Amino acid sequence: MSVLYVMVPMAFLMAGLGVWAFIRAARAGQFDDLETPAHRALFDDDPPARPQRPR
Fold first, then answer.
1. pTM here?
2. pLDDT for 2-33, tens place per residue?
3. Are 37 and 31 in contact (CB under 8 A)?
4. b/e string for 10-35 if b means 16 or more Cβ within 10 A?
5. 25 with 31: CB under 8 angstroms?
6. If 0-12 CB within 10 Å is exposed, 13-18 middle and 19+ buried, where does residue 50 land?
7. How far, in Å, CA of 8 to CA of 2, rounded?
8. What H or E segment, with its residue span, contains residue 47?
9. In this structure, what is the dihedral angle of CA atoms 16, 18, 24, 29, given to the nearest 10 degrees?
10. C-alpha to C-alpha distance for 4 and 9, rounded to whole angstroms
11. How far apart are CA 47 and CA 22, in angstroms?
12. First-last CA distance in the chain
């Protein structure tokens, strides 16, 4: 039963740290553009440059 005196405050502390990290990331703009990274995977890369033959 005494373990609850340690685990409950630790759970609240970890939950508070998670909320703090989320708020900090949201204010820093981490979640501003959710569309572009998903679309970037669909775009083709530039074709590789062909090596030139020596003359």
1. 0.59
2. 999 999 999 999 999 999 999 999 999 888 87
3. no
4. eeeeeeeeeeeeeeeeeeeeeeeeee
5. yes
6. exposed
7. 11
8. none
9. -150
10. 8
11. 39
12. 85
Q: Which amino acid is at 33?
A: D
**30-55 tens-digit pLDDT:** 888 777 777 777 777 777 777 777 76
Reading the block at residue 8, the tokens are: 């409950």
- Give dist(CA 34, CA 40) in Å, integer: 11
Structure tokens at 7: 């685990």
Tokens of 54: 């020596």
**Among positive and negative, which fits the CA dihedral 38, 40, 43, 44?**
negative
Question: What's 19's DSSP letter?
Answer: H
- Token pair 């508070």 is found at 16
